[in-house]
């Protein structure tokens, strides 16, 4: 405090910030990136451990022996699915009934805002079937969910089979304290969203129509979504990232990991096996790859499995995917069933909701985690660049204001009021980007030879690019253009806006915040009208959120060792834009509205600064 | 089980009447009536209700009669059980000059035929209790087993019960005609052919999946998500084909769910249903819960949805239970109704009819009384993380708040270096003197 209350020290400090601003900014940026890269270094990432006492050990004697039965159910289900040409509702109901479950069905219908071309659906009608195993001598206040998506084609039959075999086995046990819901959902996420909204009797995304009376089983404590498409598996991949980058409690993942180790199952995260060594360079590269994949998946904000939608309702959930690769050692259904049985019995023991362990974490491998306290400084350093720059601009302005009150340049200094038009125009461009693609799809398909989905994506890109022509029009509105002070005030506002956005975003979805900060911050800090304009323009274009998305796609393909060519990358980019819009309208995902309404206008403000005349 | 219950009762008695009276009276053979009622439930499970009625001063059965079936390991391997004790005064004779105390113990168990019968719904006494009946209780004046063999849907018999019953009893229970096979353990012919009685029941053909629904049933749940607001929804079903009847709904909701009474909506068949009577007593924080009582008319064959929104209160940190993340229970709401019956009922002589008819009281010939309890609810309240990080957060917030204030103060205030004034003491003294003199200070 003494440092600041002493005017001499204060002056010295502000002089230091002003004079060494650029080196300090560069240093802070490098520190931020360096810190992030160091997260994959094992000593910074402690081993995961079980925090929840009720699930403390894996001391459960699993007695599930019905792997063969699961496979016969799977074959039967596949036959009926083929015959019905979709979900065999009647057969499922009959089978669940004969297993002694309380069976319910939930028909739902949903019309998408525009056709989804990758999954080929527009007007969707489906039925979810679920059976409730009522816990004996309990009042149905709590429940667990085992969900299996019923997908088209020959996928996931084994998962349904295993679920039915588990249901048959669980039905005969008397130790259940929570009801167990066995759910088969059609049209994967759409069905899941419809079911969750009906179960909680809310309407989040609008327009899902479902009917019928629903059986309920109280508050759902945890959910596991299972995907299995082969009779034997070599490993299990676990997906944690949910809608908007929400993550389940780390204890659920620990539970899965513990039972995998107990039964000797191989398990992976992001498709990467954990390595035993940590002090070699390849091991570091490996965990960095895993970490980057997780960051990219979380930043995309889309659920990486059916579990992703549960998280909104504060239900801890993960998706388990059985992988059958060319490895030597295979595991049969009995082992898989035992693992699931163990997990459910442990979850059954829960006295409270899972809350003991971390909700915010990054995983460089399945057995190690980086907690929020360790990864946040990386973002903090990036944000510090903006703060330094803001204080620099503020200091310069204050200095000018003190130096030139007597000068005659009153007319050349625009007041804050003059900056309102560019702000409004940029925000309006963002609003247009948010609304027009879906609203204008009909007009676009009438005038251009494109399908609805293409029209939406291309309109979005067109509006995005058209926004870059805005500086030419905003200048006409600006009265007091032409002074240094004008662009500085505008830049100050843009930086404040950007820092505020990124700061809020990083609290909700660290990965998205960090990726946007890492790309936008250097360009935002460097931009000014009287420098090497072409170089800065290229830098700024590279830093736009759309370019970040494109780079992210290439990076992701590179990390999963399936590099995309330029054309393929472009196709993926178009698909990702359409997907982002759909995710927003169907499940309420936030990345698209954030980019359109916040990040894009902020970037346009910076673009305006660059072309200040 | 029986022994435990008897011990408990003896304690009760000791508390009520003082030690000297326990077991003072001599047991009389007509003191005890015991009864076992077995009824298959629609879903395939079996409910078994034991009733022992005796005079207060009589001995309770131990290890004989129906009580041999009470084995804890089997009774707890079940879906549901409930125990009840009733004590009431009765007249010793017609003139009612002396009063006895009647004691009735009831134990109802629902056996899960699925988990014990490997998917088959056939059952027998041995399968359920791993015991069979060998004789009646030597103290009992009446010892009977009733098995519900009512045909469903007026079709031909679906059930086959062995051994064939000696007699059949017909009764009307909850507006439905029921037929019971009766086995009198006191009749000597029962144990003539075989040494023990093992009642068996077989389904002649597999049951259809359509469950018969009761005339009045209800469902309650919490809707919404997040920790700020929510909604309690109650669905009440009236499946009677042509009769409407009123139902009394009683809800008590703890004070930490702040109900918004203006959001109370009652909707039947898409239209608003105005309750004919509402009594609402608002909650007082930490004193009493909300009390909401309503008389609602249920039209025939309808679903009535009652919703009311609430806001979750923040508790003081000492008010949380040791397991705050488990959630807080909201007790069941109580539905009471006189449900119109399909079949006319006749009044029965209470003393002569089987004991179990007293479980289903009927008010008059045309309707019967039903009281339903809905599911209790589990509601999560906003809960702080009662752990070390929570303390750290509290501490950090305090430090940040304190620092921020002074930091902001420093940043926004402009400082001037002030020349120290000379002769401060002299001036102050002079001013004091001037003040006394009534002259303005320097």
Automatic annotation (TrEMBL), chain A:
<dbReference type="GO" id="GO:0042765">
    <property type="term" value="C:GPI-anchor transamidase complex"/>
</dbReference>
<dbReference type="GO" id="GO:0006506">
    <property type="term" value="P:GPI anchor biosynthetic process"/>
</dbReference>
<comment type="pathway">
    <text>Glycolipid biosynthesis; glycosylphosphatidylinositol-anchor biosynthesis.</text>
</comment>
<protein>
    <recommendedName>
        <fullName>GPI-anchor transamidase component GPAA1</fullName>
    </recommendedName>
</protein>
<feature type="transmembrane region" description="Helical">
    <location>
        <begin position="534"/>
        <end position="555"/>
    </location>
</feature>
<comment type="subunit">
    <text>Heteropentamer. Part of the GPI-anchor transamidase complex, consisting of PIGK, PIGT, PIGS, PIGU and GAA1. Interacts with PIGK.</text>
</comment>
<feature type="transmembrane region" description="Helical">
    <location>
        <begin position="592"/>
        <end position="612"/>
    </location>
</feature>
<keyword id="KW-0472">Membrane</keyword>
<feature type="transmembrane region" description="Helical">
    <location>
        <begin position="372"/>
        <end position="395"/>
    </location>
</feature>
<feature type="transmembrane region" description="Helical">
    <location>
        <begin position="415"/>
        <end position="436"/>
    </location>
</feature>
<keyword id="KW-1133">Transmembrane helix</keyword>
<dbReference type="InterPro" id="IPR007246">
    <property type="entry name" value="Gaa1"/>
</dbReference>
<dbReference type="Pfam" id="PF04114">
    <property type="entry name" value="Gaa1"/>
</dbReference>
<feature type="transmembrane region" description="Helical">
    <location>
        <begin position="20"/>
        <end position="41"/>
    </location>
</feature>
<keyword id="KW-1015">Disulfide bond</keyword>
<keyword id="KW-0256">Endoplasmic reticulum</keyword>
<comment type="function">
    <text>Component of the glycosylphosphatidylinositol-anchor (GPI-anchor) transamidase (GPI-T) complex that catalyzes the formation of the linkage between a proprotein and a GPI-anchor and participates in GPI anchored protein biosynthesis. Binds GPI-anchor.</text>
</comment>
<feature type="transmembrane region" description="Helical">
    <location>
        <begin position="494"/>
        <end position="527"/>
    </location>
</feature>
<keyword id="KW-0812">Transmembrane</keyword>
<keyword id="KW-0325">Glycoprotein</keyword>
<dbReference type="GO" id="GO:0016255">
    <property type="term" value="P:attachment of GPI anchor to protein"/>
</dbReference>
<feature type="transmembrane region" description="Helical">
    <location>
        <begin position="456"/>
        <end position="474"/>
    </location>
</feature>
TrEMBL record, chain B:
<dbReference type="GO" id="GO:0016255">
    <property type="term" value="P:attachment of GPI anchor to protein"/>
</dbReference>
<keyword id="KW-0732">Signal</keyword>
<dbReference type="InterPro" id="IPR007245">
    <property type="entry name" value="PIG-T"/>
</dbReference>
<dbReference type="Pfam" id="PF04113">
    <property type="entry name" value="Gpi16"/>
</dbReference>
<dbReference type="GO" id="GO:0042765">
    <property type="term" value="C:GPI-anchor transamidase complex"/>
</dbReference>
<protein>
    <submittedName>
        <fullName>Phosphatidylinositol glycan anchor biosynthesis class T</fullName>
    </submittedName>
</protein>
<feature type="signal peptide">
    <location>
        <begin position="1"/>
        <end position="24"/>
    </location>
</feature>
């Amino acid at each position: 405090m003494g440092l600041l209350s002493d005017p001499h020290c204060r002056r010295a400090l502000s002089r230091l910030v002003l004079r060494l601003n650029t080196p300090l900014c560069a240093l802070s940026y490098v520190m931020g990136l360096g810190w992030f890269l160091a997260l994959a270094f094992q000593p910074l990432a402690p081993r995961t451990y079980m925090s929840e006492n009720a699930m403390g050990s894996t001391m459960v004697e699993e007695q599930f022996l019905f792997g063969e039965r699961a496979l016969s159910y799977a074959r039967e289900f596949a036959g009926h699915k083929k015959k019905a040409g979709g979900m065999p509702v009647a057969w499922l109901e009959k089978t669940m009934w004969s297993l002694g479950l309380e069976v319910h069905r939930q028909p739902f219908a949903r019309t998408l805002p525009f056709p989804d071309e990758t999954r080929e659906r527009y007007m969707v009608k489906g039925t979810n079937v679920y059976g409730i195993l009522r816990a004996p001598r309990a009042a149905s206040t709590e429940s667990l969910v085992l969900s299996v998506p019923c997908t088209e084609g020959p996928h996931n039959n084994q998962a349904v089979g295993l679920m039915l075999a588990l249901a048959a086995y669980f039905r005969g046990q008397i130790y259940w304290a929570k009801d167990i819901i066995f759910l088969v959902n059609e049209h994967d996420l759409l069905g899941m969203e419809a079911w969750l909204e009906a179960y909680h009797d809310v309407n989040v995304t609008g327009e899902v129509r479902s009917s019928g009376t629903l059986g309920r089983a109280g508050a759902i404590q945890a959910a596991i979504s299972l995907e299995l498409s082969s009779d034997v598996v070599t490993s299990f991949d676990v997906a944690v990232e949910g809608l908007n980058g929400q993550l389940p409690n780390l204890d659920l993942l620990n539970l899965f990991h513990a039972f995998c180790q107990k039964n000797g199952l191989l398990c992976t995260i992001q498709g990467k096996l954990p390595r035993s060594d940590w002090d070699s360079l390849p091991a570091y590269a490996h965990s960095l790859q895993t970490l980057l994949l997780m960051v990219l998946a979380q930043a995309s904000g889309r659920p990486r499995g059916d579990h992703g939608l549960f998280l909104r309702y504060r239900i801890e959930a993960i998706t388990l995917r059985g992988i059958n690769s060319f490895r030597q050692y295979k595991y049969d259904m009995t082992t898989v069933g035992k693992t699931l049985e163990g997990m459910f019995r442990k979850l059954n023991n829960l006295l409270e909701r899972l809350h003991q362990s971390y909700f915010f974490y990054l995983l460089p491998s399945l057995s190690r985690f980086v907690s929020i306290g360790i990864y946040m400084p990386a973002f903090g350093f990036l944000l510090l660049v903006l703060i330094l720059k803001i204080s620099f601009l503020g200091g310069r302005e204050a200095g000018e204001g003190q130096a030139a009150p007597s000068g005659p340049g009153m007319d050349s200094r625009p007041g804050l009021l003059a900056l309102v038009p560019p702000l409004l125009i940029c925000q309006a461009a963002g609003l247009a980007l948010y609304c027009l693609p879906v609203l204008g799809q009909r007009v676009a398909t009438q005038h251009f030879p494109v399908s609805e989905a293409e029209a939406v994506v291309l309109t979005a890109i067109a509006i995005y690019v058209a926004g870059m022509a805005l500086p030419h029009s905003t200048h006409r509105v600006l009265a007091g253009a032409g002074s240094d002070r004008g662009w500085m005030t505008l830049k100050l506002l843009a930086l404040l806006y950007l820092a505020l956005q990124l700061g809020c975003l990083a609290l909700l979805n660290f990965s998205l915040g960090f990726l946007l900060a890492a790309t936008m911050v250097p360009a935002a800090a460097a931009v000014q009208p009287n420098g090497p304009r072409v170089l800065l323009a290229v830098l700024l274009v590279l830093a736009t959120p759309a370019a970040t998305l494109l780079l992210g796609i290439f990076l992701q393909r590179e990390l999963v060792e399936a590099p995309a060519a330029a054309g393929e990358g472009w196709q993926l980019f178009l698909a990702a834009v359409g997907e982002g819009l759909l995710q927003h309208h169907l499940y309420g995902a936030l990345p698209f509205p954030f980019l359109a309404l916040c990040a894009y206008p902020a970037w346009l403000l910076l673009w305006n600064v660059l072309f200040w005349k | 089980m029986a022994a435990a219950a008897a011990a408990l009762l003896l304690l009760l008695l000791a508390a009520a009447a003082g030690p000297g009276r326990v077991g003072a009276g001599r047991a009389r053979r007509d003191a005890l009536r015991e009864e076992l009622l077995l009824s298959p439930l629609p879903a395939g499970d079996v409910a078994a209700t034991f009733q022992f009625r005796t005079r207060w001063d009589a001995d309770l059965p131990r290890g004989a009669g129906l009580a041999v079936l009470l084995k804890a390991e089997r009774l707890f391997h079940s879906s549901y059980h409930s125990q009840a004790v009733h004590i009431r005064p009765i007249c010793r004779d017609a003139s009612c000059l002396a009063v006895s105390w009647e004691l009735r113990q009831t134990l109802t168990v629902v056996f899960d035929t699925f988990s014990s019968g490997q998917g088959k719904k056939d059952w027998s006494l041995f399968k359920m209790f791993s015991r069979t009946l060998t004789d009646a209780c030597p103290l009992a004046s009446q010892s009977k087993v009733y098995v519900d063999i009512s045909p469903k849907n007026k079709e031909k018999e679906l059930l086959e019960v062995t051994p064939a019953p000696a007699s059949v009893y017909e009764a009307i229970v909850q507006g439905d005609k029921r037929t019971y096979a009766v086995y009198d353990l006191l009749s000597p012919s029962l144990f003539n052919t075989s040494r023990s009685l093992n009642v068996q029941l077989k389904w002649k053909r597999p049951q259809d999946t359509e469950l018969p629904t009761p005339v009045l049933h209800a469902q309650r749940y919490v809707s919404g998500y997040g920790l700020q607001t929510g909604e309690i929804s109650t669905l009440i079903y009236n499946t009677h084909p042509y009769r409407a009847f009123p139902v009394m709904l009683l809800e008590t909701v703890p004070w930490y769910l702040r109900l918004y009474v203006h959001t109370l909506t009652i909707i039947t068949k898409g239209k608003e249903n105005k309750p004919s009577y509402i009594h609402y007593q608002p909650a007082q924080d930490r004193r009493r819960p909300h009390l909401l009582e309503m008389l609602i008319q249920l039209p025939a064959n309808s679903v009535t949805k009652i919703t009311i929104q609430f806001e979750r209160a923040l508790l003081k940190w000492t008010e949380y239970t040791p397991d705050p993340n488990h959630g807080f229970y909201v007790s069941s709401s109580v539905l009471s109704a006189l449900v119109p019956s399909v079949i006319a009922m006749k009044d029965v002589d209470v003393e002569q009819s089987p004991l179990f008819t007293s479980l289903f009281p009927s008010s008059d010939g045309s309707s019967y009384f039903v009281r339903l309890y809905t599911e209790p609810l589990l509601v999560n309240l906003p809960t702080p993380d009662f752990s070390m990080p929570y303390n750290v957060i509290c501490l950090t917030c305090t430090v940040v708040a304190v620092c921020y204030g002074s930091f902001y103060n420093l940043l926004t205030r402009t400082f001037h270096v002030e020349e120290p004034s000379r002769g401060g003491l002299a001036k102050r003294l002079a001013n004091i003197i001037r003040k006394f003199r009534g002259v303005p200070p320097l």
